[in-house]
Amino acid sequence: MTNKIPVKMVMIDLDGTLINTAPDLADSVNIMLERMGRDTWPLDKVSGWIGNGVSRLVKRALTDSMNAEPDSDDYDKGYALFLEAYGENVSAKSRPYDGVVAGLDKLKSAGFRLACVTNKAESFTLPLLADLKLDGYFELVVSGDSLPRKKPDPLPLTYACENFGITPQQGVLIGDSANDVKAAIAAGMPVICVNYGYNQGVDLTTLQTQGVIDSLDILDQHINLLN
Questions:
Q1: What is the phi/psi pair of residue 139, to 5°?
Q2: Catalytic annotation on 44?
């Protein structure tokens, strides 16, 4: 990226961008499956299913398919078991990615206003951020059930912009997936992706982003504070 993007507010995805949540999600999936008398899945398998919310994750674990629908009774039972397991393990193994804390410190020091925008349910999002001591960085947290629609719908992004009194062009979304890119484009907002996380095999350099970076610690090299 040759020219820095002038923005007032930075909104950042959670799973796969701020925090490596796959170990706890995988453990919770497998607790669910064990309690249903089913075979469990390895971490790398579950990691490939993350990114479209808990409901879809449960369905993928039950069907071993990205888009198939399980038996409705199995799904209802599995969903309830997963919620119970994940509630008990939301931050057991999850940790911020390298460079996240340093990057957030730089952004705050430079005067950027920060929001976390995630498809994870609020009942998991808020405890996870608090447990890992990241909650204090964000003026606003928009979870997957905070609004009627979630990413890739642009609503969470436009809602955050309204909250901060800015236009979408005055913000930037930092994410790890095509869902994030789709939401940003629909909102008319710049988007930068990290090259780690849960991209479900999509080459992020082929998408319409304003850049792909390998650490939040260098995000300040790609954006300027808009006064």
A1: -75, -25
A2: no
